Amino acid sequence: MSKKSRSSVAIMIAGLLLMSILALPCAVLADELADAIAAAPQGTEPGQIDHAAEPGFLGIPGAPEPSLVIGFLWAIWVGWIFSTVGAFGGIMAGVGHITVFGLADYGRTFKNTSPALNKLLTDSIRVSNQWMVGLSAAVGSVNYYRMGRLVLPLGLALGIGSILGSYLVPMITAGKISLKDYIGYFGLIVFVIGAFLFYETTPRGQNRKKEAKAAAKRFEEANIAQSSSASTEEGGVKVVEWSFKKVRFTFYGVEFSFNPIIPLIGGFFIAGIASFLGIGGGFLFVPFLTSIAGLPMFLVAGTSALTVLIGMITSIFTYMVIKSVPIYWALIGVELVGIFVGSMIGPRTSKYIPDIWLKRLFVVLALYVGIRYTTKGFLGYSIVPPF
Q1: C-alpha span between 251 and 148 (Å, rounded)
Q2: What pLDDT, in 10s, does the model give residues 155-193?
Q3: Segments making up each domain of the chain, as ranges
Q4: What integer best gives the mean pLDDT of the chain?
Q5: Peptide bond into 386 cis (omega under 30)
Q6: Which residues contact 203 (CB under 8 A, 6 or more apart)?
Q7: From CA 370, how far away is CA 378, in angstroms rounded?
């Protein structure tokens, strides 16, 4: 086994072991959930608990029972989109939990009758999204590292900066955010990022990043047009200099450099926002990596994945172990299998998609999701389908 293969396996095993530890404190979570259910009013009307009904999500009587088949198929899509563009895994996971499984509409009914249960459902959705993204990030990190498409110093710098943000925000906000506010802020931030990245796809935005365009063109020639003989070993990421003041690396002969302090600071703020929304933060790391670091999209997915993995482990630990947020293990277990499948496919298909189309895919998803959830959260209804 080569040195790169051993390193990639080590990353995968370490990530999965740390995430599995988070599944241990289930008794405390069950007690807190049972207290919230017991405190909710009884009855068959919205915002009430019908104890005669069949248990659904989180074992709550009368709650929606998510389809495990749909959960598996949706998770494949989540794993593919995250491992392809390095973002939108958490957002697509959120779309599944919020809309596809109907958990938002159900949780919203408890806003006035049982605020504790309403906020517990909100936190459960947030951490469930992060479990899905965490596994996809672990698989994606390994695959992209082996393909020579992960900038390890940059991913680690962002990841180290993200640890504090991923810890502080769950500590401050867990149990305090209503589902309505969560959905609104979720959509608003996604929309703003989508609008910014749309600018990046315009001629004016593209002209600002000559190095990234040059590297992307050479990679496309080698992998899409098949007109170059450059192999992964010859053209992949090669770190030339690694110090506290400057990191330099090359990708298909094009040199890039950055000051490690900048991603440390960026990682802190991005992870804080991501933890608040209950997502991986890839949709924020992607514009950071393309616009501030100036990377081509072919390097963004893998580098973002490593950064997200570090933040997810920290955030999930804080939500579940310190703040005692419960999750629905039957659904999460099936979703993680789907995530693994999708995350294995993404890195192998993304190299055949041109750089500009990867960005456009990101922008379309961001604008749609942003508009839908901003209006649904703040207006009470969506202005785009499904309404």
Answers
A1: 9
A2: 999 999 988 888 888 888 887 888 788 888 888 888 887
A3: 68-206+264-378
A4: 82
A5: yes
A6: none
A7: 12
